[in-house]
């Protein structure tokens, strides 16, 4: 019997071969046959709005006005945020913004500086 790898995204055993890649029918994740498990561990999961990988300690720039929930403050476009920290969850960047304080941001609203 031909052993196919489990899905790296959801660990499903129901993967199938689709030519040059494997596909998971449960979560829709696709990955290359030539990718080994060691290479996927080194690539970061968090990317900015342009697709650049983000790492702890990077500086980013906000690309959209963001309202601060529960406050009348707004994080303006072009605000530079230094020394970010990546965390798990929906808001995957933990940082401190001058004049506002500690915040959590979504990586889709920032670009690498």
UniProtKB/TrEMBL annotation:
Residues in Protein YjdM N-terminal domain copies: 3-32
SUPFAM superfamilies given in the database record: Prokaryotic SH3-related domain (SSF82057), Zinc beta-ribbon (SSF57783)
InterPro entries, A to Z: YjdM, YjdM_C, YjdM_N
Domain (Protein YjdM C-terminal): residue spans on this chain: 46-113
Pfam families, per the entry: YjdM, Zn_Ribbon_YjdM
Family per record: Belongs to the YjdM family.
The protein's name: Alkylphosphonate utilization protein
Species of the source: Vreelandella nanhaiensis
